[in-house]
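DM between two lab members

TW: hey, do you still have the 5'-nucleotidase SurE entry open?
JB: yeah, one sec
JB: this one, 261 aa:
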Amino acid sequence: MRILITNDDGIDAPGLKVLTEIAHELAGPDGEVWTVAPAFEQSGVAHCISYTHPMMISKLSERRFAAEGSPADCVLAGLYDVMPETRPDLVLSGVNRGNNSAENALYSGTLGGAMEAALQGVPAIALSQFLGPEVFESDDMFEAARLHGAEIVRKIWTNGIWDDAHYRIFYNVNFPPVPAAKVRGHKVAAQGFRTECFFGVEPHRSPAGKRFLWIKGGPQHMPTQPGTDAAVNLDGFISITPMRADLTAHDVICDLEERLG
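TW: and the structure you got?
JB:
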């Protein structure tokens, strides 16, 4: 099995090391694990691509590359430059430091990498570790992902739904904010929405008097609707959410046609 991995936390991120372990376990002794990850942190870039400027790519070691671009850029670099004649069987993105449940999924560079792979016709799974007090107090904040990651990915790879639609299915996996021993299992869950949890800005002035704005997020431990991703995560379950890049609101198409005549 040939696996391409990327992330949005950067080539040196601890979560990428965890994902490397997961990928090697899945690929097996005869498989290959290729890494193309951002040279610097790219959190919050979503599905951004470096369309207006070039990016430098550097080979760090055998099958390991750093690119000065977004996770989606890294997937493109992997498919068309690093391994153009031997496409991967699977693309894994993560393991993100922090959850990509609910509305976070829309901003996530981790999901952006998986989404680009799906658009390119390659099966893809994004993995993220929900953080919280129990995780911060443990010796390994990625323990739940480290110990349960390979099993979950293997289950999705073997028994999941993989189609050849124009907008192919990809998967968003979030590990709960608990130690591995407290993980209660996994649940297939829709993307939720945290009410009263929005990004905003916080103004600051530099010593020179210049005005700057920091992007500020909302509380992460607010549950979403029962059965949706963040809700099951906070209940100790790994969430598995099938996704597509199609943004059409299909549920209102017919009604809108009638309204507009």
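TW: got it. The radius of gyration is 19 Å. The chain has eight helices and eleven strands.
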